[in-house]
Amino acid sequence: MLSRLNVRNIVLIEALDLDLESGFTVLTGETGAGKSILLDALALALGGKADGKLVRSGETTGSVAATFNVPPTHPAFAVLDEMGIPREDALMVRRVLGSDGKARAFVNDQPVGVGLLRQLGPLLVEVHGQHSDRALMSPSSHRRLLDAFGGLSGEAARVAVLWQTLKDAEAALAAHEAALEKAREEADYLRASVDELSKLDPEPGEEERLSSHRQAMGAAEKVATDLEEAASALEGAKSPIPTLAGVLRKLERKASGAEEQLNPVMDALAAALDTLEEARSTIADAQRSLDFDPGQMVELEERLFALRAASRKYKVAVDDLADLASRMADDLADLEAGEVRGDALAQAVAGAEKAYRSAAEDLSERRAAAGEALEAAVAAELAPLKLDKARFIVRRETASPGPEGLDAVAFHVKTNPGSPEGPIMKVASGGELSRFLLALKVCLADKGSASTLIFDEIDTGVGGAVSDAIGSRMARLAEALQVVSITHAPQVAARADQHLLIAKASNGSSTATAVRALEQDERREEIARMLAGATVTDEARAAAARLIEA
User: Fold this and answer.
1) Measuring CA to CA, which residue among 7, 131, 127, 155 is closest to residue 67?
2) pLDDT tens per residue across span 234-287
3) How far apart are the C-alpha atoms of 47 and 113, rounded to whole Å?
4) Where are the domains of the chain?
5) Among residues 209, 109, 164, 488, which one has the least CA distance to residue 356?
6) What is the pTM of this model?
7) How far apart (Å, rounded) are the C-alpha atoms in residues 134 and 119?
8) For the chain, how many helices (H) and strands (E)?
């Protein structure tokens, strides 16, 4: 419910702090006192158009704050949760407007975009009046209201889920058929590619591993060349070993008698031969230990060439060839098993369609019954509202299947016997429309409505009996919702739980509008004024007292 309205410097309002109660509240006052200003102020707080002309003359800014006490389950809190705005005990929307037309919006003192206020507004307040577009019920909401009246919201939600399931199944089948068709077109290419990649059998990381091995073998190849040169120097035609060995043998044959001179020479030659032999053996060991195999080097080069050629051909990195081979194999398998999978997906679509159609048809039958019940309920409310010759019609027609089911629902009326029926917004006059909407709201009670309903002078131009009927129905509505009525009808005002009086006051240099709650005696005096006019008589006071007591 709307618990508090704070207005600063809006049109004729200088400062207003208005506390509202639950139940039924009426706002009365002389014509021109400024009742519409309050609606304009509330509309501004709920995201209405920011017009700098609303700012009080002589001021640079104006502001409106509306505080609502709503239960934790109220849908407005779901909107705040989605936007990441912390919950508080109450929900306050506020708008600050500059005389230049620039405005800022706040929810619970958090800066927000005006779009959020416009999203919250319909969840919190509904305004109904003879000449206000805000009061016209959009045809797009009629189906939802019928479902709310018939207690069908759960069934409607289930139909929406089944519709989405059907759409998902159809999308999966369509995607599979498209992929299958594409696969058929590429079947020969796929088979050749899978065969080629299967023979190549690439492995992730293989290119880096082979490159590292090739680099190591390249380094080993250079060392092997140097060792071969050293080995050739010791073993080839120019090797000094045979020459030194021959010289040593000659000296050994001639050593007799010259040992003192030759022995040191022979020892040196023998040592040299031993060292050369040891060097040759060491070179041979080093050659055997090298990781270099010319044949293996060729194999490495050929493998790297094959991998990189495939990489260029299929336009993927070498490391991605294995994954590509797997995907192509899967695509080929899908092609080969596609018909079986397609049959399963088609069966899923058929099952989802059957489930949706069954639930939607059942919902249609229940909507038909709910429509008849709503027509009867509204008809029972029309006679006291002097619309006894009018008819309220729930027009339900078959529509294309969709998340809402198979029905298009529109509220039609026939205002007089013999006159054509038509959409409620086009056929009913301003006064008739207000009364039709009131009858509907009474029948719907707290189903499909915002938590606060505001009726803007919907009793204008009707007689006392109709005004009494309007007041009675507003009081009934107020048992489930907060109802605020701006009224000139004493019969409506007499039924209120809270009575607010709006009036203008002037100090000679400026005029301001003020609102205050009336005590019991003041309330009787105001209703007497509404009955009698400018001069309040004792008879009017007595009549006012009887209305209040009744």
Assistant:
1) 7
2) 777 778 888 888 888 888 887 777 777 788 888 888 888 888 888 888 877 776
3) 9
4) 154-362
5) 164
6) 0.62
7) 14
8) 17, 15
